[in-house]
Write a structure and sequence with these properties.
Distance between the termini: 68 Å
Helix content: 40-55%
CATH class of the largest domain: Mainly Alpha
Order of helices and strands: EEEHHHHHHHHHEEEEEHHH
Radius of gyration: 26 Å
Largest sheet: 3 strands, antiparallel
CATH superfamily of the largest domain: Tyrosine recombinase, N-terminal domain
Strand content: 5-15%
Number of domains: 2
CATH architecture of the largest domain: Orthogonal Bundle
Structural class: alpha+beta
Number of strands: 8
Number of helices: 12
Length: 309
């Protein structure tokens, strides 16, 4: 590495060997002081050598490079949000090897004491989630980068998993709801697929005309839809076993054929339900109120489907 004066700023040039054994060079400009430039140079050298004298923030860059390509994009975005907003602000500048269980306990106390503008606090489930993410980062450092131990594990968990009451609609309740939805065909047909086939919301939103075989009365589930950072993202289903072919009732096949016929010149691989999860959550509110039935989660429609058996 080398540090140079660059006008009224400082510049660092870094030469390294990549995993293929190729010599590479990169640089970073715009440091206000030589001290800042040397500090950045030191962190890059520590990361390249995987020395845990680096800051927690620098190790997170390694963690992201190791993990991001191994999980679905929407899964990484959920992890990244927790890391950026709940973990990095507290531990980012600390050297990862010097973080102790007492530091994690102090962080936990801040999370437990949080109150939002309206006095809301973090739920036990969310507290458990953010602690698990912190622990996962330390575990990665232990398993692959020789960190002696996991201070989050030693500090102990916080929060707990909430076991929400499992709600479902009877067939009579669903039919009342469906009747209230008929003023909006898209909503009506979307909920018909959710209820009668027991598919997940993301799976339903990813459906295309080519997924249906109306001769065999089946629908193939092999993808899921997410809206991430203003983009439509199609991923594989939640688990490998989620790839499946579902037998559809004859009346539902007729409804889906009718709905596809309403869509002007839709391509065989275009999404049939061009809405978001948020839209259907609002529709669930509207329909339940109009039908006079209890409001359940959209996820609970899967339990309602199972109850039909």
């Amino acid at each position: 590495m080398a540090v140079y004066k660059d006008g009224d700023k400082w510049r660092v040039i870094y030469r390294y060997t990549n995993y293929k054994g190729e010599r590479k060079q990169t640089q970073k400009r715009g440091f206000a002081t030589k001290r800042e430039a040397l500090g950045w140079e030191r962190e890059v050298m520590l990361k390249s050598e995987s020395k845990l004298d680096m800051t927690f923030g620098s190790f997170l860059e390694i963690y992201e490079a190791d993990k991001k390509k191994r999980v679905k994009e929407n899964t990484w975005e959920s992890k990244s949000h927790v890391i950026r907003t709940k973990i990095l602000p507290y531990f980012g500048e600390r050297k990862i090897a010097e973080i102790e269980p007492r530091d994690v306990i102090a962080w936990q106390n801040e999370m437990l004491a949080y109150k939002g503008g309206n006095g809301e606090v973090y739920s036990p489930t969310y507290l458990k989630t953010i602690h698990a993410q912190l622990s996962a980062i330390f575990n990665h450092a232990v398993r692959f980068y020789h960190l002696p131990g996991n201070p989050a594990q030693k500090a102990g968990a916080m929060g707990s998993e909430e076991h929400k009451e499992m709600l479902f609609w009877t067939k009579e309740e669903y039919l009342k709801f469906a009747d209230a939805m008929m003023d909006k065909p898209l909503s009506y047909y979307a909920f018909e697929m959710l209820y009668w086939c027991g598919v997940r919301l993301g799976e339903m939103l990813a459906l295309t005309p080519s997924d249906f075989d109306f001769l065999r009365n089946t629908v193939t589930i092999n993808k899921s839809y997410q809206r991430l950072k203003g983009r439509d993202v199609i991923t594989s289903p939640k688990t490998a076993k989620s790839n499946r072919t579902i037998k559809m009732p004859h009346f539902l096949c007729e409804e889906m054929q009718e709905y596809i016929g309403m869509l002007y010149e839709i391509g065989k691989d275009e999404r049939m339900f061009q809405v978001t999860k948020s839209y259907l959550h609002h529709e669930m509110d509207r329909g339940a109120k109009a039908a006079g039935v209890k409001r359940i989660r959209i996820h609970d429609l899967r339990h309602s489907h199972v109850s039909l058996s």
